[in-house]
Amino acid sequence: MNLLALLAFLLTLWVSLNLALPRLPSIRLLLARSLPAKFTRLGSSSISSKAVVWSIGSKLKSEKKANSGTWVQVYSNGDVYEGEFHKGKCSGSGVYYYHMKGRYEGDWVDGKYDGYGVETWAKGSRYRGQYRQGLRHGIGVYRFYTGDVYAGEWSNGQCHGCGVHACEDGSKYVGEFKWGVKHGLGHYQCRNGDEYFGEYFSDKMHGFGVYQFGNGHRYEGAWHEGRRQGFGTYTFRNGETQSGHWQNGALDVRDNTKNCYEFSYNLLHYIYRKHGELLRKLVTLQRLTRECIKLCQLQTKQPMLPEWWLLKLSRNKCIIITVKKYQP
Description:
Layout: H1 2-20, H2 27-43, E1 52-56, E2 69-74, E3 80-86, E4 89-98, E5 102-109, E6 112-121, E7 126-132, E8 135-143, E9 149-155, E10 158-166, E11 172-178, E12 181-189, E13 195-201, E14 204-212, E15 218-224, E16 227-235, E17 241-247, E18 250-252, H3 253-258, H4 260-299, H5 307-314, H6 317-325
Antiparallel strand pairs: 1-2, 2-3, 3-4, 4-5, 5-6, 6-7, 7-8, 8-9, 9-10, 10-11, 11-12, 12-13, 13-14, 14-15, 15-16, 16-17, 17-18
Helix pairs in contact: 4-6
Signal peptide: 1-20
Keywords: Repeat, Signal
InterPro entries: MORN
C-alpha cells in the first residue's frame, strides 16, 4: 500500500513539472536582466562626468571614436559650441561661446577658424572678415573697444598689406602695413590738421615724404626715423623757402650756402625720382584699396578713405608743380 502511494506521488510530481517548466524563465534570462542593472549601479559612481551633448544628425557610435554631425556641446570651463562637427572636431558652420569672454560665429576647419567669421569680445571689440588656420587672414574690419577702426588686409593675425586705420581722436592713416605697423607708402592725417604723405619704415616717417602743417607751412624731402634728414626744402606760408641738407630735424646751413646751385640741381632730380616711385606705388595702392573702400563704406556712415589724394597724384600734378618750383 505504501509503495503504491509513493509511486502515485512521484507520477503526479513528474507530470506537474513537465507542464510547469516550459513556462518558467530560464537562468540565462534571469542573469541577463538582473546583472547589468547591478553592475550599472555599482559602477556609476566611478564614471567621470563628460561634456553634455545634444545630438542632431549622426548618432554617437562610441565615446572614444570620432563623431560627425550637428549638435551642442558644453565644455567643463563653461564654453559652449553649437554647430557642425567632422571627425570629432568643429568643422563647417558654428558658433562658439567663450565663457564671460566673447563669441565667434562663422566657418570652421579642423577645430580652427577658417573662412569667413565674426568675432566679438566682452569689452566691445569686434572683428568681421576672413580667417585662415585660426588667425585673421585676408580682408577684414576690426573695431576696437576704444573706438579705433582698422579695415584692410591681414596676414597671420596682423595688419599686413593695404589698410585704413582711423582713430577715435580723428586722426587717420591710409596706406601700407607690414606685420602690424605702418610700412611703405602712406598718408597720415593728424587731428590738429597736419598731414603727411610719403614713405614709412617700421611705423616711422622714413624715406621721401611731404609734410603739410596745419598753419600753412610745408616740408618736402628726405626723412630718417621720423625726423627731417637729407635733402629737403621747407616752405613757409608766406612763400619763403629754406632748402638744403637737413640733419636730425634741423637745417645744415653750411651745405646750403656752399653749394647752392649744385644742391638745387640734385634736389630737383631727387624729388622727381622719388615722386615717380610714389606714383608707381600708388597704382598698386589704388588697386588694393578697392575692396577696402567697400568694407569701410559698409561698416561706417562716412567713407574713411580720402580719395582726393589718390586722384591728385594719379594725374601727375605733384611732379609738374615740384619741377617748376625747384628749378634753379
